[in-house]
Predict the structure.
Amino acid sequence: MSHHLINLKDLECSAIQELLHLTDRFVEVGQRSIPKVPALRGKTVAMLFFEDSTRTRLSFDLAAKRLSADVLEFPTHSSSLSKGESIRDTVETVQSMGVDALIVRHSSGGLPREIADRVKDSIVIINAGDGANAHPTQGLLDAYTLCQHFHGVAGPQASLAGIHIGIIGDIKHSRVARSDVHAYTSLGATVTLVAPESLQPLDLEDWPVKITQDLDSVLPTLDVVGLLRIQKERMEDGLIQSLAQYVESYGITEARAKTLRNEVVITHPGPVNRGIELAEAVLEHRENVLIQRQVKNGVAVRMAVLFRLLGSGVEID
Amino acid sequence: MADRERRMTRPYGGVFFARTTVLDAAQVERALTRISHEILERNQGLENVVLVALQTGGVEIARLIARSLFKIDGVDVPMGTLDVALYRDDIGLRPVMPEAETEIPVDLAGKIVVLVDDVLFTGRTIRAALDALTDFGRPRSVQLAVVIDRGHRELPIRPDFVGKNLPTRRDEVVDVNPEGVLLGEMRK
């Protein structure tokens, strides 16, 4: 039992389903001419983004505002952090100001959990991405987007049973991949990870997935092609030899896209490296590229998480 | 009583025990037929009338009223549903979950909205509903139809159409469904 959202690993399948079902409601709110509800009036949400982020930050910001919560932006670059203030001091300061939730992003895995262990019980910690560890709201929004695509809505018993999802790219360094695997497999999907050996995770034996280095052998069996962003610095680290070679083996090029069945959908957490993970022409012209849908659902999922933790009066179990 | 009301009413997760039958199925049907006639009479027809059912207890009742209005006047009145959980003023004071569908099929601007619920109690659900409605447009007027008015109002809200006024104790529970109205209590 926890009143935080740190890692989807902590959640039972039923808790994930409940959050996705709640997301259905907030998707509906987003379609209204006035897409804002007073549910979290008087609550204050502080954004502590120690690592750069545009879309996740905007998405949380919009989600909180659409619930009528007040949002406190903590500018980690211009603030006293650059003067050597520790994260602990920062958290204590924000806590003393009386915020109700901290949305934390940091490049080191495990920090949100450490903060959760230190803050007052009344404060909710939401992990917005920690190192290569977890990005729970991304996992939820990806799962929601697929439920919505295949079933229209999540419904009370969200399920991805019978669906084969490939996650392709830099699994090793990806918190998105980790959270996606948890969300997808909890909902009954079959997941295959596709990556060169150098980008496969080391702790793989605990993962309920198959793994391969050969994209073309698994591609015809996939219902969902889940792409991950490749960081350019991986090349500098020598983990991939060249971008051209990566595209050759793992990119969804125009030629590869032509081999996909029409109903196969493509996801990507964004921002896309155009021409690397996904060819420009595929991105622009293929139907069933769900990227915009993922972004849109991200707001609704984060509204569901914020409301569930701050407003519902019910703990996540 | 709807499953959510059961779970969100103290004692949470209790079981409803009926003590008396207040209305039987035939009496509920007669009350809804009378309410339908009153809606017609008050609004001199059904032009611009929209039924908006409060989730979850009002939905079945609104369906029956819509059916009855069709029988009387031959008009299919548009019907929407509204879950007011996100507009409640007791968020944080008790468990609140928006679990049911909100679907308003028409623009409410200029319409006569008849809110439909099973039981009118403190009036707080209706207050939340009035707030929620304004997010969907500006109706010309809003009227309220309920099967049971059980008293104990905490806000200046009154129903326009009532099936039955039922004096109750605060801790009693009223269960309304098309098969009848029961008065009883929740027990753990």
User: Anything to note?
Assistant: Chain A has two domains: 8-135+296-310, 136-291. DSSP finds twelve helices and nine strands in chain A. Chain A touches chain B through 19 residues (CB under 8 Å). The radius of gyration of chain A is 19 Å.
